[in-house]
């Protein structure tokens, strides 16, 4: 099958499923893995797709990816980042975990921590941590987003302001080249800003694909983060800024 035939087929599958994987495309199109990797790289160079580990996704622009799709994307590296994050969370502390698939991965890695108080506006995080009998889970309340189990709004931020957390762990939708942390939902931005203000130590967990995405609402700068967990080295210019801000960068890959 020629490249002129493969490209439209690859894009059709990406539009239908939200992503494509190298192995599935190679089997579906009857070509080698190397051929598909080359095709995806060329489509990414043309702006038709965005490369991710093991495949590619449609360019995000200013539209968020469906939650179930976000959960599957880059799952192995999210687990590696979550392990690194959980390793920096001590026993016997109070933490906040916000909305996101990466924070859900952190929750899973906290199942064997002792004497934790976890406050969350993420129903999925709360459900995960019910499996840890030595963890007190407090759910903030607020307006429930059925798409991802997130709670937002004035009730959420009001609840958060009643606490002072040892550690606040947040995710985001995008990170700008200047280090600004971005999201799509203004209410979620307000929640994240409140978490950062109410936390003695702040952590951001976000994979490298967030540097390829754009979102309109600013949460904060990486300068407000103590430890940034990601899965690939950041651009040298941003790494230099992080060093100036005393923002530690932790890189973990599967």
From TrEMBL:
<dbReference type="InterPro" id="IPR036390">
    <property type="entry name" value="WH_DNA-bd_sf"/>
</dbReference>
<keyword id="KW-0678">Repressor</keyword>
<dbReference type="InterPro" id="IPR001034">
    <property type="entry name" value="DeoR_HTH"/>
</dbReference>
<feature type="domain" description="HTH deoR-type">
    <location>
        <begin position="3"/>
        <end position="58"/>
    </location>
</feature>
<dbReference type="Pfam" id="PF08220">
    <property type="entry name" value="HTH_DeoR"/>
</dbReference>
<keyword id="KW-0804">Transcription</keyword>
<dbReference type="InterPro" id="IPR037171">
    <property type="entry name" value="NagB/RpiA_transferase-like"/>
</dbReference>
<dbReference type="GO" id="GO:0003700">
    <property type="term" value="F:DNA-binding transcription factor activity"/>
</dbReference>
<dbReference type="InterPro" id="IPR050313">
    <property type="entry name" value="Carb_Metab_HTH_regulators"/>
</dbReference>
<dbReference type="Pfam" id="PF00455">
    <property type="entry name" value="DeoRC"/>
</dbReference>
<dbReference type="InterPro" id="IPR014036">
    <property type="entry name" value="DeoR-like_C"/>
</dbReference>
<dbReference type="InterPro" id="IPR036388">
    <property type="entry name" value="WH-like_DNA-bd_sf"/>
</dbReference>
<protein>
    <submittedName>
        <fullName>Transcriptional regulator, DeoR family</fullName>
    </submittedName>
</protein>
<keyword id="KW-0805">Transcription regulation</keyword>
């Amino acid at each position: 099958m020629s490249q002129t035939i493969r490209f439209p087929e690859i894009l059709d599958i990406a539009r239908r499923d939200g992503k494509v994987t190298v192995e599935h495309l190679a089997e579906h199109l009857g070509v080698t893995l190397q051929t598909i990797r080359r095709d995806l790289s060329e489509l990414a160079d043309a702006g038709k797709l965005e490369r991710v580990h093991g495949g590619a996704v449609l360019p995000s622009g200013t539209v968020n990816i469906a939650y179930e799709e976000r959960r599957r994307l880059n799952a192995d590296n999210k687990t590696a980042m979550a392990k690194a994050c959980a390793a920096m969370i001590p026993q016997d502390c109070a933490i906040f975990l916000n909305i996101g698939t990466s924070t859900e991965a952190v929750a899973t890695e906290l199942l064997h921590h002792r004497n934790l108080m976890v406050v969350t506006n993420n129903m999925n995080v709360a459900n995960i941590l019910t499996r840890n009998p030595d963890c007190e889970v407090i759910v903030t309340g607020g307006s429930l987003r059925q798409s991802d189990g997130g709670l937002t709004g004035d009730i959420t931020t009001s609840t958060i302001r009643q606490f002072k957390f040892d550690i606040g762990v947040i995710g985001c939708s995008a990170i700008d080249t200047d280090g600004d942390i971005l999201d799509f939902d203004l209410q979620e931005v307000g929640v994240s800003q409140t978490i950062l203000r109410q936390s003695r130590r702040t952590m951001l967990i976000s994979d490298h694909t967030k540097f390829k995405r754009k979102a309109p609402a600013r949460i904060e700068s990486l300068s407000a983060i103590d430890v940034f967990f990601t899965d690939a080295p950041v651009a040298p210019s941003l790494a230099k800024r992080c060093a100036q801000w005393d923002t530690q960068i932790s890189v973990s890959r599967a």
